[in-house]
Amino acid sequence: MLFSVSSGRRFIFMKYYYFLLIYLFCTSCHKPGQQSSSLSGNKFNDATLRAIYTAQDEWQTSTLLPYLSHTDARYRQEAAQAFASVQDSQAIAPLTSLLTDPEPNVRRAAAYALGQTGKHAVEETLLAAIEKEPAVAVKAELLEALGKCATQKGLEALVKFDFSDPIVQAGQAWGIYRTHSRQLQYETAIPKVVSLLSTPNPETRLAASHFLARTSKLDLTPHTAAILTAVQIDPTPEVRMAAALALSKAKSVNLLEELAGIIETEPDYRVRLNALRAFNNLEWLQVKPIVWRALSDKNINVALTAAELISTKATPEAAPELLQKAEQTLRWRVRANLLATAMKLHPDKKQVLSSIQERYQQTNNVYEKAALLSAAAKDIAGANLVEQEIIAAQIPVIRTYGIEALAQLRSEKTFPAKQKKHFASLFQRVISSGDIAAVGITAGVLRQPELNFKAEYADIRFLKEALNKLVLPRDNEAYQEISKTVAYLEGKPEPAAPQNPFSHAIDWTLVQSIPADQKVSIQTTRGELVLQLFVEQAPGTVANFVQLAHTGFFNNKNFHRVVPNFVIQGGDPRGDGWGGTDYAIRSEFANLRYREGFVGMASAGKDTESCQWFITHSPTPHLDGRYSIFAKVVKGLEVLPLLEVGDKIMEVKIL
What we know:
Helix 3 runs parallel beside helix 5, helix 8 (about 125-130) runs antiparallel to helix 9 (about 135-150) and helix 18 (about 285-295) runs antiparallel to helix 19. Strands 1-2-7-5-6-4-3-8 form an 8-stranded antiparallel beta barrel. The chain has helices at about 5-30, 35-40, 45-55, 60-65, 75-85, 90-95, 105-115, 125-130, 135-150, 150-160, 165-180, 190-195, 200-215, 225-235, 235-245, 255-265, 270-275, 285-295, 300-315, 320-330, 330-345, 350-360, 365-375, 385-390, 395-410, 420-430, 435-445, 460-470, 475-490, 510, 540-550; strands at about 520-525, 525-535, 555-565, 565-570, 600, 615, 630-635, 650-655. The chain is an alpha+beta fold. Strand 1 and strand 2 (about 525-535) form a beta hairpin. Among the domains are: about 75-220, Leucine-rich Repeat Variant; about 415-500, no CATH class; about 510-655, Cyclophilin-like (Cyclophilin), CATH 2.40.100. The two termini are about 45 Å apart.
């Protein structure tokens, strides 16, 4: 039907007026206890929810348990979800009873929490619940939870199930994936998982490809063709990249040629990168031309992966060419890696060391200086330079990298015997300095049995004195390392990790002021990232991040860690990965998955989070349920692969 412009305008006006009336009617009829994010910020205007999350934050199992039988299903669901973070065995029985709750969301939360326990004891309970569960989303959750708790029996059950529903099938695939860290027998699982690579549901294929990529000691040679097909034609790059990594477990005469083709033609850098990593089982002379070319890949992460591969596969004959390649590249991380390999393989150590020293003097980039010290320490010939620099260093990054490099050098089987006493003395001095990184790194070396430091130290008072100077929760990681070392040198059992004291309550006034869709701008030297905070899933973590951002804590900090196709990490006041605040916050394990651009908290174990956070380059399911997720990148994903070690976080601004 045709109408005039003026009548069209009236029609549009009336349409929007009509929608406005509906909106006002719906909001005026909002049920008590429900929250509307657009009008009231977030769900924590509800006092009962604040009480549940406070009990979670303070590990108050006795306070949480009654909520599991609350008449309001939403509170039962939230209390069950809370036990996914608290992980108290006392909750297993009441959580089990919730698997028959009339509300699907409650059953799903209970299934997730039971899976988070990782206990074999719940395997039979989960198997029984799977058979009876009518809701597909809940059944999928039960299947994944079973994988987290499975014995061989649970794995075999997961493999035998035959589901047609795509959601349930994805749950089954993730369940099989979750068994990968339990060191089971996977002969019957492999064919099932390979068959799932060709299902229509991308979520199922993603889980299947990650199982093949991340499960150790698999022989995937019989399935090379199917996995290669997934790498070449799957429409989802996240599936292609995981399948490419799985090819490292296959041996085939045609594999080299196929992988080379992928590296040359694949548009997604993460797939090219993992295809390079799949060269692990191939000989250096076979892969050398391809790896040399990859050093010039337009993406720094691919080039860096090529340099790392060279360090594991190159032979001494390649040393002169390595030195030449190092001089030609303009990328300092690639150059430092090549120099490290040259230092290890080149017959003329002085020549390589001279090149390292020249670069060291020329650069003002502290991270490049640190990487060059690591390169120098690949041979005892460079140890003097490294020792001099760590003693003179005023910057934690240089000192930490140098100590780490010397610790690694001392761990080498070829370490010269005449240097052992000197290194024992050096390690004693750096531990006595009280520097948290020096203590943490060096203490770990001292308890390696094959290095026999028991014979070097008749008196270990210096270790106990260093231990007594550490402060919890700030120094938890170093505290764990040196506690274990003292026990080892005294011939005592390894102590349990210290439990961080409760030291940072959630600021609920701040939390209530944060909208459910709150955005944050992170200005970096490579461009802007915009995050959306998950305040309703991780209120304590989000409040901590916002508090620090308001004070300018993150401004002018560096991204101190970048692992290709894994994470970029920042927020450390020291800039070397060992810094933190004087308090720790609790882990918050909402039922979320790490995908590309998700933001999580770095930690030294459960409930040790502080101020360091990371952003993922791609799906990293091995981090799910172990590291708090509190945000995702909603703008600037193209910036992530550009960020390098040393790039600055210029400003973090709450929008």
